[in-house]
Amino acid sequence: MLTYLSAFESYPKLIQAFSDKKTRLLALEATLRYYTAFDLRYGSGFSLDENVREAVLIIHSDRMKYTFLKHLAAGSYGKEYRAVISKLSKEEKQTRAALFEELDRLEATVDIPRPHIYADFLGVASEYQHQGRGRKLMSQVCRYADQIGLPIMLFTNTADDIKFYQSLGFRIIGETSSERFGFVNTYMLYESSVREDRSL
User: Fold this and answer.
1) Do 41 and 92 touch, CB atoms closer than 8 A?
2) How high is the pLDDT of residue 192?
3) Residue 132: how many CB atoms within 10 A of its CB?
4) What is the pLDDT of residues 70-84, one digit of tens each?
């Protein structure tokens, strides 16, 4: 969790929603605890080594239907999450919930192929960034996708991230934007070379 808190300190979707840094970091931690618990229960987490200075979560699209019961089973509402979310005011909780409801609503407008592997929360601890660790980790995920013959889907928020993923073979398949929360999500797809070979 410390790696993710460090990596996502400037998470674009939360900046406009929460101008106060302390509140934004609480909203970030609540979000990370909520979604990573689900991803780890129904998918897998990967890092280059046991020190977990970088990490990415992957989950098959068939297992991504979010329900209250699935989140409950995953531990998304565990004591760590409850301890963090309790520090947000009622209005701040409502803002956070509205932000992710808007994200889901906008994502429904993107034509995303299924089945796919969803890559979530690629992050590198701040002190280890710009060392090629994220590239090395995602390259391994791409090789895994090649082995099982499925594409990888993800979304990102910055021009630098778009260039990073394009350099790994991802292409843009859609874009959404939120006027209310001031974020732009760019959806990207890595198409497995094995899948492409099978279609020849």
Assistant:
1) no
2) 78
3) 12
4) 999 999 999 999 999
Distances (CA, A) of 111 to 101, 120, 151, 156: 18, 18, 14, 16
**What does the alpha-carbon distance between residue 96 and residue 180 come to, in Å, rounded to a whole number?**
12
Q: Pairing relation of β-strands 171-178 and 183-190?
A: antiparallel
Cα 32 to the center of its chain, rounded Å? 9
From residue 34, how far is each of 19, 140, 147 by CA, in Å? 21, 26, 30
Q: Which residue has the tokens 């994502």?
A: 107
Residue 19 CA to residue 79 CA, distance in Å, equals 26
CB 189 within 8 A of CB 170: yes
Tell me the C-alpha distance between 8 and 162, whole Å.
16
Up-side HSE of residue 136: CA atoms within 13 Å toward CB? 12
Length of the chain, in residues? 200
Distance CA 175, CA 179 (A): 13
pTM over 0.85: yes
CB 184 within 8 A of CB 174: no
E strands in 75-126: 117-124
Q: What is the DSSP letter of 149?
A: T
